[in-house]
User: What shape does this take?
Amino acid sequence: MNSKEMKKSTIIIALIIIIMIQIIARVYVGIKKEYFHIDEAYSYSLMNYNKIQITENNDFYENWHTKEYYIDYLAINEDEKWDLKPVYQNQKDDVHPPLYYALLRIACSFTINEFTKWTGIILNIIIWIFSAILIYLISEKIFKNTKMALLTCLITGLTLGALETTAFIRMYELANMFVLLITYFHMRIYSKEEIKIKDIFPIGISILLGSLTHYYTIIYTAFIFLIFVIKYISKKQYKNLIKYVSCFAIAAAISILIFPPALRHIFSSYRGHEARGNLLNIQYIFSNLATYLEIISKNLFGPLAVYLIIAYIIFYIKKRKEIVNSENKEINLLLIPTILYFILVAQISSYNELRYIMPIISTAMICVIYALYNLLKHYFKQGKAQIISAIILLIIIISPAVANTHLDFTYTKMNNLAKKMEEKANIPALYVFSDQSIRFLDDIYIFTKLDESYIMKYSLATIEHIHDVLEDKNTENGIIFIYNNGVEPEQIISEIKDTYNFKNVEDIQKLNEGMVKYIH
Assistant: This one.
């Protein structure tokens, strides 16, 4: 084995160790995950059920349901195993493309008749493995330094934002992977004087699959597209331009042929209208940017992330000639699309939340590490710059664990609510539901743990009706009482206590859109 092969084998071993560490971190996060965001419940229902909302069922309200009723909405039954129609039809009726849901359905085919967080988390972990490899390959191209590429791969996969992306059972982990894949394949052709079909074919496939995952990947891709179009026009490489533009046109055409509703989603759905409306509200642009800077700062590695980018921009302006001569031009394929995506999405996104920048969570972190390393490299020798970078990055990555920082999408603040419900599973549960707040899926996980539950419309929640509903139920040990926003519970609780001679009311858990109480 020659030295070159030895070096390659060492890199592979190091990369395997790094990915194993990242997998262990993600499994730990998965174990800690206690609850689900409403959109995570949608992930399971959209790939499975014959309609988007369980509340659309004719028998949903004013009926007793077992936990199997809700599990059926979230899990695949044996006779549904090979029926992929819901994947396409539900996405057609909703506002997202279908690829992620198809993959989640395949994952859920291994857990027939069972709803579990692990189908989504394991799927995201598998996707992450490919992302980690791409992060290394991209980092190697921009740093031209194996050690820094391995360090970047390690750190990028252990940021809060990266762990949140895996914990959140949505399409964002897959979108992040396709953003990396699109970037990597573009880096491979950046310096080529002549591109061939075999060079742009993987770009076309990546663009196609990315567009079928999340429409926001199109935003990132559009900025890379502009870079290359400007490059080919300025250098008068018209053959390259024709091949490159054709690649995009064919990928777009195939994407629309596969999923025609995409055009309606982007241009005329409520999300499309929201995006255009937000884009025109320029008076909020600075407040939106400030909010998103705070979000990305928290989820990369603290305020230092923002300060590093600002410091690097100032440093770049001051020493532009020196930097340009030594810099790898491929970094522009990361910096420019990531920054422009960040600015645009901060303005057009429906909510100011981490999920909308999850597709660039990896490219953003690579940019931050690049800024740190290059700042240090101009003041220290390369070896010292690497050591100092490693120390700073490792301290910052470890600090959230030391500070016992909670990840938002593990919902540890739910205080083991599901376990508490399992302990009281045989107690009848009454959910008084107001249509002023229709986010039932925020709380559906509770009902997969209860033996029997009843969804009562708030307009019908009289004590006489409640008594009729509970007449045949064993209330010796009390009842679980749940209500959502829009319900004024005091009178209902008082009348239940008087009617059933209950003495105590315990607050079990505050929900996103309501409250769980135990009356006994």
